[in-house]
Each structure stands twice: as C-alpha cells, then as structure tokens.
Amino acid sequence: MKTVSIIIPFSNGLCYLDDCFGSILSQGLEEGSYEVICLGDSPEEGIVAKVEEYEEKGLPIRYVQWLEKKGAGYARNKGIMMAEAEYLYFLDSDDYILDGCMSRLIECAKANDADLVRGDIITTYYKSESFGLNKYNHKKLIKEDRKLSDVELSNLFSTEVTALNMLIRRSLVADNNIEFDDQVLYYTDIPFVMQLLNVTSIGYLAKDAGLAKRKRNDPIHYPSLNQSAKKNKDKMVEDLIHVYQNTLPVVKDQPKRRNTISVIMCKTIYKQCVNGWHLSKETAEKCSAILKDGANGVVNKFGFAGRIILRSIASKRYGLAKFVGRFLRWRKKKKGKFGNKIQWNRFIDKLIFRHLPRKKNWVVFESFFGKGYNDSPKYLYEYMLEKYGNQYKYIWIINNPSPNMKGKPKKAKLHSLRHVYYSTRAKYHIYNVRQPGWFKKEEDMVFLETWHGTPLKKLAFDLDDIHAASQDHKETFYRDSRLWDYLISANPFSTEVFARAFEVDKEKILEVGYPRNDILYSPKADEIAKSVKEKLGIPSDKKVVLYAPTWRDNEFYGPGRYKFSMALDIDLMKEELADDYVMLFRTHYHIADKLDLSQYEGFVYNVSTYEDVSELYLISDMCVTDYSSVFFDYANLRRPMLFFVYDFEEYKDELRGMYLDMETDLPGPLLKTNKELVNAIKNIDKINAEYADRYNNFYDRFCSVDDGNATKRVIETMFGGGDTP
Ligand code: C2G
Q1: Which of 1, 102, 243, 420 is most exposed by smallest CB count within 10 Å?
Q2: DSSP annotation of 155
Q3: Ligand 1 pocket, mutate which of 452, 556, 636 (most atoms under 8 A from CB)
Q4: How confident is the model at residue 123 (pLDDT cuts 50, 70, 90)?
Q5: Distance from the CA of 272 to the center of ligand 1, in angstroms?
Q6: Where are the domains of the chain?
Q7: How far is the CA of 587 from the centre of ligand 1 (A)?
Q8: Is the Cβ atom of 630 under 6 angstroms away from ligand 1?
Q9: Using alpha carbons only, what angle is made at residue 549 by residues 543 and 550, rounded to the nearest 5 degrees?
Q10: What is the pLDDT of residues 8-38, one digit of tens each?
Q11: Could you tell me the fold of the domain covering 4-219?
C-alpha cells in the first residue's frame, strides 16, 4: 500500500502551482510510495496542462474537475474517496511544503504508530525560491518530535482550526465517516478536525516538517479565500453558523473543543460588527439565537465593548451593536489621542472643502512625494508658466521651499491641510509618483501621472513577491492607477509594460517622451551645464563621473525610508582617479541615510540633495549606475555608461526580476567589483568602441521618442493647444 495520498483542491492561482507541485517532487519520496490527487473546483484555465507538465516530470498525479464552484470541503471529500494510501495529507494549491517535511511526518508516524502527526505551519508572502528571505515568520515552533497528551490533543487548536500539515491515518477517517463540511465555502475544516480529534488515540508533533502557508499579495487577481471573504462577509458568517451548529453535537462532551468553536463564532460576529456591519436581518437573527445563552460562557470573556456588542446582538438591539462597532472602528483608525493630522484634514475636507466649487484653472504639481522641485512636473510647470502666465493658478506640493522655483506658485506641504484643500478644489493634478491614499478624484478632475522612469525593475502586477516595506503594494497600486486620466511613457517598451503591469488602458498612455528629458536636447544645454558646474564648484579641468544607484527593496527602516549601503570603495577611486576625475555621488530619493563624505572633499561631491538630476546628467562625462532608470534617460546624451552591480545575482532573481536581460541589452558593461569599475573608467574609450553597436540599438529602442518637445506634446494633449484655460 502507498504511504501517503496528498490531496490538493484547486480553484484559482495557477501561478502558485509550480511551487506547490514542485515542493512535492523535491521531497524525493520513493516512487510508488505516494500519490497526488488534485481536484479542480471550477478551476482556472490551464490547470490540465500544468498537471500534465508535472506528470511528465514524474509526479504521480491524478486530476478530476467539475465546473460548478463547490468549495474546498467538497473537493477534499472527493479526494478522500479516491485516496488509497495509508495516510492522508491535505495541501492547499497556493502553499508548498519545505524540504524534508513529508519524510519527517511519515517517519514520525511510523515510528510511533501515530494516527495523526502535525508539523509546523509557517506563513509567508514569498515563493519557495525566496523563502529564505522571509526573516520575520521563519520560526520553527516544534523543537522535538513529541507525543501529544490527552489535554494537548483536546486543545490542539485554540484559534484557527485547520487540517493542514497533518498526516492523518486514512482508516480513521474512512471507518468513522469523517468528512469536511461540503455545504459551505468557509470553515470547512472545523467539523472534520473536531471529529478527527475525537477518534485520535496517538497524536504527535514532528520537528523539521514545515509547511509554507502562503499569504497572497494580489487580492485583485488572485484573492485567497479569506481575501474574497472580505467582500462576502455575510456568506462567511452564514457558513460559520452552519458549521457551528453541526459541530456542537460532535464536541458536546469536550469542553475545550466546544470552547474553541464558540470563541471562533463569537470573535467572528464581533469582528463583523467592528469592521462594518454587513449582516442581513436573517443572519443577524441566527447570531442572536447563538449568543442568547452566552455561547457557552464565552461572551463573558470579552472586554467591555465586546460584551456590549455581543449582548446587544443577543437581545436583538442591533442598532446599539452597530453604534459601538462604529465607535471602535473610529478609535482603531484614529492615530494618537485625538487622531492624526491627516485624519483631521480629511474631516475638514468633508465638512468644508468638498462643498466649494471646483476651480477650472488651478493646477497642482507634485514630484517625488513633495521632496523637490524637479522631474517632469517641473518642466511641465515651467512650460505652462511661460505659455499661459497667470491664466492658470499653479500650486506646488513641496516640503521645503526651493530657491530654483520659477514664478510665484502657491505652495503646500505634502499631506498638509493646504494640500488637501488644493487637491479638492483644483481641476488639474500632475504627479510623478502615486497620489496620496486619501486623494479623492471627482468626475470633473483631470489627473496626469507622469511616472518617473522607463522600467527595468519589474512593476506592480508583474512582480511575484513583494520585498518592499508594504505587502499591500498591488492592491493600492491598482486602486491608485484607476484614477489616472493620462500616463506618460517615454517609449513603446514602457507603453507595453505600463499597460500590463499597471492595468491601464493604452488609450490613456501618452507615448510622447519624458518632459524631464527635454533639457538634454536643449540648444542651451552647454550653457546650462557650465552654470551648474560653477554653482557646484566643480573644476573645469576634471572629468565628471556621476554615480547614481537605486534603492534596495529589502533594506528599509519603514515605508518610503530606505537604507543605503556604500558599496563603492571611495578610497580606491580617489587613489586611482583623483588626478583626472571628480565624482558626483547621488542617492535615490527613497534613501533616508545621510552620508558624510567630507573626508573626500575635492574628489567626491555629494549631490544627493541637488534638485534636478537631469542637470547633473548634463555636467557629467559618464554615468555609473546599477538598476536605476537613470540610464534610460542618460542614454539620450549618448555618453558612456557603466553598471556597478555588486549584488547582481540577488537583485536580479530574488528581489525584483527585470524586464531586460542586463547582460545583453545594456549599453555598457556590468561590473561587479570596485577594481573592475576603476579599470573601466580608466579605459572608457575602449569600452565606448566595444559597446557602440549595443548603444545604438539601446538608443533606438528607448530614446527615439525624446526630441526636446515632450513637454509641449503633453501640455497640448492635457490642456488643448489653445491659449486660454
Ligand atoms: N533618481 C535620482 N537619483 C538616483 C536614482 C534615481 O535622481 N540615485 C531619479 C531619476 O530621475 C530616476 C528616478 O529617480 O529616473 C527613479 O529612480 P529609479 O532608481 O529608477 O527607481 P524607482 O523610483 O523605483 O523607479 O519605472 C521606473 C521605476 O519605477 C523605477
């Protein structure tokens, strides 16, 4: 007889299956000792091909499917009926097992003649390849193989009841007709597990048998059951009521387990109330009936507000329960004792600003989260100022006043009351990064997203794992990009990527080049360069190397505040290059670290706070960067570029993934060490000759739309070619 039948229900999320199936293959289980049963519950297209692919790779898999959605419980029951092995193992199609998990579970079960063996469940957002980067959840809880005492067995699940990562003796399930609840979509595990625990005599915990339970980061396309439940709250409570009522008789002689399901029931009702009431009258009445007897005394264990809510529902005073729920919700969202500044600003906005008429000639500009007067918004603003003068009123969202700002625009700090005011009243909005989460776009507003670079690093929906500070990235990105009327693209390549990765209609994309790059084609470019050099005090007899790296997703203090590690050996650079060169050093706008480079005065110029990087391009003779979109813009100048990619392997595969093959597509060499970099700088003419063809191809592909007139094209599209607002 085979040892284990692995049962996998599948509904959506084909992209997770490689990890799931692959992790079973890499367990190295003996052929004939196991089987995989995959059950398609109204499955996503492509599943059959995926199953066949793994069959060919040697996975002993059987597949059945039905087209009507019946839920995981139904699928697992079907799987139980098909299973032939001594033990059952339930695996979800978006999870994967860690190396050695299955043999450890089997070993422990066999050595101890156990009915049930459980391993660790480790939650992660990451695919298996980058599981090791999952620093925070990577805790092994089970240190030794250990027999569960009767008390532990009856209290095995004190919060979430799950059948995952357990090896279960199949005869126990078959002989006692133990089933998942197939009438429901949610909570199907509860009756199964409770019945199972009733008949389990020997239960074990096994060490080094981990299941990676994957949290999904794309609730738009691949919502997990829980994420879709957020939209389907009534159904979730309905299901739990059904499960609760059917399971109560099973646990009637088991106070601990009865307590567990009552706690789950009460917590769910409580959460419903606090997260916004979604219950139909009928469901509310059922909840009331359950809570009437205090749900086995569990209600009394809630805090004051919780008791009021649950008791009000018990006595059908739903209005009171809703009111307390709303209060708790408000208190939870409220930051600090009296709420934070943004919350107050939004409150005033609702109370006053939203009732004032829209100003048809007001234009709001923001660049890099109010960190400067620069990038495409600056060039669009200056063009408008010159063309329309004071026919428009201009507003800059900027945190520190800029001495370089032309005209006399109104100014507001990011997230300030003035920012909120202008955001509500102005008709036109121009941002180069995403707008604030609180931004509310009305029908008659026009929003231009300039974006801030041709993408090398994968973006939004093209990302698998999110290694940056916030896992809500895809969801918030989707929400924000729904509000954009126009999005600028600098080349056909960006247009394709943006349309797919941001899910923006191509009609909204203005493939007109970057306004910020117009200066690179300006007839006055040399003049500007001369004055910038003078302003920065850069000697005219030295060549200028600009070093402008990007940020690293996984090195952060918090959202928008990233760390910088200096990989450049400045001492070496100085020793080797200082006679002929100076270096401009510029960190990305996300970097919070301020570097003290004063000891290299005269050789390194820290231009991290210099507002406009385009002007720095103009004064530099070559550019050293890594994965920053800087190089797409710099290529417009056709000057040499070097890529200092000391962490290439990690960055390329684990952190982001890329749209280009950096080894073959870039207009310059990839350099992994400081020595290589110094050599390349010293031999730049040779490199120029070597990379001439690649440079030409690169230029044609990414720079051929830019011609110095992008700003004009954008303004004409957004404001019409005429002279008046
Ligand atoms: N930048 C800069 N100095 C740096 C790095 C970047 O001034 N050291 C500016 C450049 O204008 C660059 C822009 O910030 O084009 C975006 O920087 P990237 O390094 O490309 O990184 P990111 O902000 O993640 O944007 O589609 C583009 C991507 O989203 C990249």
Answers
A1: 1
A2: T
A3: 452
A4: confident
A5: 42
A6: 4-219, 233-333, 345-516, 543-702
A7: 10
A8: yes
A9: 155
A10: 999 999 999 999 999 999 999 999 999 999 9
A11: Spore Coat Polysaccharide Biosynthesis Protein SpsA; Chain A (3.90.550)
Whether the CB of 608 sits within 6 Å of ligand 1: no
Place of tokens 């809880």: 141
Decide whether any atom of ligand 1 lies within 6 Å of the 455 Cβ: yes
Closest CA to 703 of 564, 518, 523: 518
Residue of 367, 356, 428, 363 lying closest to 393 (CA atoms)? 363
113 alpha carbon – ligand 1 mean position (Å): 59
Q: What is the pLDDT of residue 134?
A: 60
Which of these ranges, 249-263, 380-394, 573-587, has the smallest mean pLDDT? 249-263
Homologous superfamily, domain 543-702: CDP-glycerol glycerophosphotransferase, C-terminal domain (3.40.50.12580)
β 486-489/509-511 pair status: parallel
Residue 446: count of CB within 10 angstroms of its CB: 16
Q: Is the CB of 548 under 6 A from ligand 1?
A: yes
Burial (CB count within 10 angstroms: exposed 0-12, middle 13-18, buried 19+), residue 646 = middle
Alpha carbon of 163 to ligand 1 centroid (Å)? 46
Q: Whose Cα sits closest to atom 10 in ligand 1?
A: 630
Residue type, 285: E
Atom in ligand 1 nearest the alpha carbon of residue 455: 26
377 CB near ligand 1 (under 6 Å): no
* Token pair of 648 as six digits: 């290439």
Protein residue whose Cα sits closest to atom 12 of ligand 1: 630
pTM for the structure as a whole: 0.85
Q: What is the pLDDT of residues 674-715, one digit of tens each?
A: 999 999 999 999 999 999 999 999 999 999 999 999 999 999
Mean pLDDT of 189-207: 95
Q: In one letter, which amino acid is 367? A: S
372 lines ligand 1 (CB under 6 A): no
Say whether pLDDT at 658 is over 80: yes
CA–CA separation, 378 vs 371, rounded Å?
A: 12
Which own/partner contact pairs does 522-530 have at CB distance under 8 Å and 24+ positions apart? 522/708, 525/618, 528/615, 528/618, 529/615, 529/618, 529/619
Whether 118 and 205 have beta carbons less than 8 Å apart is answered as yes
Question: In sequence order, which residues have a C-beta less than 8 Å from that of residue 68 and are 6 or more positions away?
Answer: 42
Q: What is the CATH number that goes with domain 345-516?
A: 3.40.50.11820
